[in-house]
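Researcher: I'd like a candidate sequence for this fold, 222 residues long. If you have to choose between options at a position, lean toward the conservative one.
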């Protein structure tokens, strides 16, 4: 099933509660929350205390994308703050097993992300423990960048690997440059969870845009 996870990175950080209400009313399936530490990526966003405050403004699942050096240290904080799915990077400095154990211990769903320069096979050893793999379609750190079409073969290879392993329905998320111009390509390659920040928040009618995204993704897979 195709799902849309709007990224609040492109929202007005002074009015995040309003942004969440808009997403909820517009048919979003989850909320993508980008956490950046200024080390793993050259930008800083927000931490678990903010996630905790945001939890009051929507019942939608929180899809937390950790772009931080040491995810294992912060899993419990984000879980307690209200994250439902926690995605961290295969390139981060914490041990992957240790981080997956922490997510499982917290009773949350795990996602594993790869930057554009990382081979998709890096996630294969962990597939059976994951709810989702995030294939970055831009270099992480900033919204508003262009979709990288050269990531499409990674998505296709991952979808084929999932089928080979008997987990054809594993969520494959794409993040970066997703818009009405690019979503069909990602969907046709095998992605089914679509993050979008600037395209959705830049649209005059978020509900209509989310609906359009879903229809484009569905049609690309039909
Ligand atoms: C980038 C973030 C993305 C970002 C996407 O590091 O992970 O979630 O918000 O923004 P757009 O959709 O504008 O590329
Ligand atoms: Zn993200």
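Model: Candidate sequence:
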């Amino acid at each position: 099933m195709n799902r849309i996870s709007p990224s609040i990175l492109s929202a007005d950080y002074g009015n995040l509660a309003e942004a969440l209400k808009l997403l909820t009313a517009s048919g979003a399936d989850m909320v993508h929350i980008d956490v950046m530490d200024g080390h793993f990526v050259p930008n800083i966003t927000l931490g678990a205390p903010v996630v905790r405050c945001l939890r009051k403004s929507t019942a939608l699942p929180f899809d937390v994308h950790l772009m931080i050096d040491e995810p294992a240290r912060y899993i419990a904080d984000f879980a307690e703050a209200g994250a439902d799915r926690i995605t961290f990077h295969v390139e981060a400095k914490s041990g992957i097993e240790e981080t997956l154990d922490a997510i499982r211990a917290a009773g949350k769903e795990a996602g594993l992300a790869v930057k554009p320069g990382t081979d998709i096979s890096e996630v294969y050893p962990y597939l059976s423990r994951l709810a989702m793999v995030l294939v970055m379609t831009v270099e992480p750190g900033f919204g508003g960048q262009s979709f990288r079409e050269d990531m499409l073969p990674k998505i296709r290879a991952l979808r084929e690997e999932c089928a080979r392993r008997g987990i054809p329905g594993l969520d494959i998320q794409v993040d970066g440059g997703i818009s009405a111009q690019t979503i069909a390509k990602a969907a046709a390659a095998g992605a089914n969870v679509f993050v979008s920040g600037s395209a959705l928040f830049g649209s005059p009618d978020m509900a209509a845009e989310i609906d359009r995204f879903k229809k484009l993704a569905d049609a690309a897979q039909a």
